[in-house]
Amino acid sequence: MKAFAQPVVTAGEIHVTLLPPDHVDYRIRLVRVVWVDPHADHDRQWMVLDVHDECLGRDGTWDPDRKERGRGEAWLADHCFSVGEALRLAQSAVWQVTVNGITTAQVVERDGVLEGRGRDSTRALKEVRTVASRAETALAALHPRWEQYRTPDEDAPQMRSALEVVAALLGRWRRTGHTIRN
Questions:
Q1: I want to staple 81 with a disulfide (CB 3.0 to 4.6 A). Which of 17, 85, 95, 107 is the partner?
Q2: Domain boundaries, the chain
Q3: Cα 86 versus chain centre, distance
Q4: Per-position DSSP letters for the chain, written without gaps between them
Q5: pTM for this one?
Q6: Share of the chain above pLDDT 90, in %
Q7: Predicted local confidence at residue 142, as pLDDT
Q8: Are 45 and 35 in contact (CB under 8 A)?
Q9: Count of CB atoms situated within 10 Å of the CB of 13
Q10: 3-state secondary structure string, 114-164?
């Protein structure tokens, strides 16, 4: 592997939430995607954790004991993911985070916090949506099934991970219908 010509920025933790940061329940309903093992296979470097450090399994259940050491291969395969898979699991799980018998989905409905910007139209939104669209296009082009048709790139897995994170981060500004001109 070649050395880097400039500093490299790596995301170590990504927060997934349905609530704005100023909401009273923001921290307790947060789901975290955490980079736990940079030396593992590319598809087993990330975990999904809740506020209590419980670890999400592939089947959608939370494991209260997240210690990876001494765990068998089957446990690791069920609780460690690529960043893309971890983000998808976290985005599904965040709706069902339950505190005092109330799910985050119920809080969102009760407090009316899920309005979004999908129909808004500003210059900044247009630029962000362009970047998001290009990231998604590049991600599709880097899919492993296309590797057989071109010269492989040793950094392709890391490129896919970066694009998955960009697409997930910019997803909140995705256009969801006819835009309303401002």
A1: 85
A2: 1-114, 116-182
A3: 6
A4: -PPPSS------EEEE-SS-TTSTTTGGG-EEEEE--TTS-GGGSEEEE-TT--EE-TTSPEES----TT--HHHHHHH-B-HHHHHHHHHHHGGG-EETTEEHHHHHHHHT----STTEE-HHHHHHHHHHHHHHHHHHHT-GGGGGGS---TTHHHHHHHHHHHHHHHGGG---SS-EE-
A5: 0.78
A6: 37
A7: 84
A8: yes
A9: 11
A10: CCCCCCEECHHHHHHHHHHHHHHHHHHHCCHHHHHHCCCCCCHHHHHHHHH
Q: Which residue has the tokens 């994170």?
A: 165
List 81's β-bridge partners, or say none. 46
Closest CA to 173 of 137, 106, 122: 122
Residue 155: pLDDT above 80? yes
